[in-house]
Design a protein that fits this description.
Chain A is α+β, with helices and mostly antiparallel strands and 624 residues long. Helices cover 28% and strands 14% of the residues of chain A. In chain A, helix 16 (440-450) crosses helix 17 (467-479). Classes of the chains: A alpha+beta (624), B mainly alpha (216).
């Protein structure tokens, strides 16, 4: 059979749409996974020992699970997946230990891989899987015997299709019995079922006895995970009606992709005080722009994405793609989805070469300094027992107007708004001068012992550290076998001197802040930067160039420092200041230029009329 | 395309001037150094003693200085570095531009009268008019002063080009034109400035020649 034909034959019922825009009815049987990882028995809600349904074997009946699990949301742990533009990392933090560390399996500059700090994929999933839609590190097959045994019990954290596609309001991601808490309890196998509106899960793998076997549970295992199905959800044939929609509702996306910014003076702002993205208010949903096919390689929406993605809409589905379209194309493509085509009256074209669209249109309106930002994934928003204080860690600052990292050689590094995080961690200096973080378990044990008396503020803010305490912790790390221990914080690298004190230096790239672009919320056009006058940005006091970016650190002397926005744009101070100053005189330049034009125009008109008069006189001679 | 056309146009202009200079020498010293000093003195030293004459010459020299600065800051990044004008070059360009515009306005007022075309400039025109229109035009058999006519034409051409040159960039600073028109006005500014530079070089060359020949 030819390969193409074979692939065609392998397509499942739901892999390809027949073109109907109506929702497909999902009245389907549920299947569990068996002890060998294959398709298990059909779920019977009357079975006292019923297993949680498996999305792989339930949804996978009609949708190619393997193809889906290579999509953007699930492929972080796949080293062959293109990293694309730097994005939001997972943030491990511990205020008492002075740790605030960006982690990711993706190969982004400035990022640390979980393995570098001693986190195995299951451990990483246990900490951060609360805001993952499953897959990725959650379904990596371990090679270590102990981990294999653990995964036999906990199961894999399969791709949770319901996390995005369940339109039922009972989809439970963050309640005390929902998806997030199940992941935290290592109930990976049960997490998707617990999130559904028709199943409940009690107990946890962590509390189960050492001989617990999920496929043959003892009746005495009262603390082990147990799933109970709502029998009313099953019809006479044992099928369940699931409110599955192709286009994920925005509330599903918001669970992992919400932002909350503090006020300009660091005051706490409630969600209702801030506006939603202008696209949402216009009636769009997230997936109207962030589209994907079966491969779930969702459009991230940045310029140059087409070089990283095989999504055919990657090039066309961006700010520019919808609002402007391909200006040189054969047919008009701008104004997609009713997007207004901007005129940008009075904005010199150079702005569009140097700035991203988001620079003027996205994020909180810039003030004298960036504000503190909370994100779902960094601050566990939407889950239980969230510290709602404005100063709670991790500390993310936004907006910082920085030059973007580019992944495409054809794209120019434009300036855009970013979120910024100052990494803080304990590391070791290698022979090449590089810094590697010390494993978190070692930090907890060694540094934790030194800093055990340091008070932790109720706000969730940093515990204040002094240089003497840093010195003691570094000595302890040195004594525990860590060669050349260092402490990185606020752009500084602290090393031990021979006399036992510490010295800080600022020139190490490992101490540089990690920045990732922010694109939402998009503000209305009337609240864009530069509306009305150029001096919003082109003045010596403009937040865009001269706003001060705070340095974040548990060490007070370090956190008192600031950087300025233009430094992140790689712009020299003198030139930036002089250019801003020139706008003071620019109105006079305009007056002089227009006045001069008027004078020249009058002279031309005057002598033109004189010439015309001369011609008229010559012609008048003929009549004489 | 602009870069290519500009380079060819500038080269053609300079080559043309050199060829013309060699083919039809304007007189004066044959020594290169003495010739250069003489040429410079024709532009720098006021030949007339009146205050207005001195002011006119000063304004002219300031205009030449501004012209050189604007031409260098405007064309250097585009033709040499292959990028748009920006940074300090942009600031210098934007600072000298209004001064140049003002100088050109003053020169327009003070020089326009002296650059009027007269019947003596184009005797062949009288003959042509007589022949074609049968008008009562006085016969004039004097030879045609081609350089003088071109010199005056270049002056009026410069004034004429100044208007779109200034307005194309000033208008874009107001909230009037959208992005496509911003691109258009910028392109207009570039192309006109290229023509302006060529005409200005020709005008200056002719001014030197005519001064050496004591025609003006």
């Amino acid at each position: 059979m030819p390969l193409v034909a074979a692939e065609e034959a392998a397509k499942l019922l739901g892999d390809e749409s027949d073109g109907s825009r109506a929702h497909s009815i999902h009245l389907i049987p549920l299947f569990a996974e068996n002890d060998t990882g294959e398709k298990g028995p059909r779920i019977d809600p009357n079975d006292e020992q019923a297993m949680p349904f498996s999305t792989r074997w339930t949804c996978g009946e009609c949708h190619s699970y393997g193809t889906i699990s290579r999509g953007w949301h699930f492929n972080a742990a796949d080293s062959n997946a293109p990293a694309g533009r730097p994005g939001e990392p997972w943030l491990y933090f511990n205020s008492k230990l002075g740790v605030q560390l960006p982690l990711s399996y993706r190969d982004w500059p400035g990022m640390h891989r979980p393995g570098q700090v001693g986190l195995t994929p299951p451990e990483f999933t246990k900490i951060f899987g609360r805001h993952m839609p499953g897959g990725g590190p959650g379904q990596v097959t371990p090679t270590d015997t102990k981990e294999i045994a653990e995964q036999y019990v906990s199961g894999k954290l399969e791709v949770n299709c319901l996390a995005c596609h369940n339109a039922h309001p009972g989809q439970d991601q963050g309640s005390p019995t929902g998806y997030a808490i199940q992941v935290t309890k290592m109930n990976f196998r049960w997490a998707a079922a617990a999130s559904s509106e028709f199943a409940g899960v009690t107990g946890s793998v962590a509390d189960a006895g050492p001989t617990y076997d999920p496929f043959m549970p003892d009746e005495g295992e009262t603390k082990a995970p147990r799933v109970t199905y709502d029998k009313k959800a099953f019809d006479a044939k044992g099928n369940v009606f699931m409110q599955i929609v192709r286009e994920a509702p925005k509330q599903r996306c918001y669970f992992c992709h919400s932002d909350l910014f503090s006020g300009e003076n660091g005051e706490k702002l409630e969600k209702w005080c801030s506006d939603e993205d202008v696209h949402m208010m216009a009636g769009l949903t997230c997936v109207d722009c962030h589209r994907n096919g079966l491969g779930h390689n969702i459009v991230r929406g940045y310029d140059g994405e087409a070089a990283d993605s095989d999504n055919p809409l990657a090039a066309a589905t961006s700010c520019r793609g919808c609002h402007l379209g391909d200006e040189n194309g054969k047919r008009p493509t701008g104004g997609r989805l009713g997007a207004p085509v901007p005129e940008h009256k009075g904005i010199p074209a150079v702005h569009f070469e140097r700035l991203t669209c988001t620079a003027c249109h996205s994020g909180p309106y810039p003030g004298d300094q960036p504000v503190l930002a909370k994100t779902s994934r960094a601050h566990r928003l939407g889950t239980i027992n969230v510290n709602k204080d404005v100063r709670v860690m991790p500390h993310i600052l936004a907006p910082v107007f920085a030059r973007q990292a580019v992944t495409d050689a054809n794209s120019s590094p434009k300036i855009g708004p970013h979120k910024l995080l100052w990494p803080a961690y304990w590391g070791t200096l290698d022979d090449q001068g590089g810094i590697k973080p010390v494993e978190l378990a070692t930090v907890t044990e060694v540094v934790g012992a030194v800093l055990k008396d340091v008070p932790v503020p109720a706000t969730g803010d940093w515990s204040e550290l002094k240089e003497e305490q840093i010195a003691k912790a570094l000595k302890a790390l040195d004594g525990s076998g860590q060669k050349k221990p260092v402490y990185v914080t606020g752009g500084m690298v602290y090393e031990l001197n021979d006399d036992g004190t510490v010295a800080g230096r600022t020139d190490h790239p490992a101490a540089e802040p990690y920045l990732w672009p922010l694109a939402h919320n998009v503000r209305p056009a009337g609240q864009s930067l530069g509306v009305g006058k150029c001096t919003v940005c082109h003045s010596t006091k403009s937040p865009f160039f001269f706003g001060s970016v705070g340095v974040d650190s548990p060490i007070v002397s370090v956190s008192n420092g600031t950087r300025t926005q233009y430094e992140f744009q790689r712009a020299p101070y003198g030139r930036t200041w002089a250019f801003a100053m020139s706008f003071i005189f620019r109105p006079w330049f305009k007056v002089v230029a227009i006045g001069s034009s008027a004078v020249i125009g009058i002279v031309l008109l005057l002598f033109g009329l004189k010439a015309l008069g001369a011609v008229a006189r010559v012609l008048a001679e003929q009549d004489k | 395309m602009f870069e290519t056309v500009s380079i060819f146009a500038f080269l053609a202009t300079f080559v043309g001037i050199v060829v013309h200079w060699v083919a039809t020498p304007a007189g004066g010293s044959r020594c290169v150094v003495r010739g250069a000093v003489h040429t410079l003195s024709l532009l720098l030293i006021e030949q007339k003693s009146s205050l207005l004459g001195a002011l006119k010459k000063l304004v002219y020299l300031l205009a030449v200085l501004c012209f050189l600065v604007l031409a260098i800051t405007g064309f250097y990044p585009v033709l040499v570095k292959g990028e748009h004008i920006s940074g300090f070059l942009m600031m210098i360009h934007a600072t000298f531009a209004p001064v140049f515009a003002l100088c050109m306005a003053i020169l327009a007022v003070t020089w326009a009268g002296g650059h009027r075309f007269t019947a003596e400039d184009c005797p062949w025109m009288s003959r042509l008019l007589r022949r074609v229109t049968r008008l009562h035009v006085a016969p004039d058999d004097r030879p045609w002063r081609c350089s003088l006519v071109l010199y005056k034409a270049a002056f009026w051409c410069l004034l004429f080009l100044m208007l779109p040159l200034i307005l194309s960039i000033v208008i874009s600073m107001f909230h009037l034109l959208g992005t496509p028109w911003q691109h258009t006005t910028l392109a207009l500014h570039r192309w006109i400035s290229m023509v302006f530079v060529i005409v200005a070089v020709i005008h200056t060359y002719l001014a030197i020649r005519l001064r050496m020949a004591n025609v003006i």
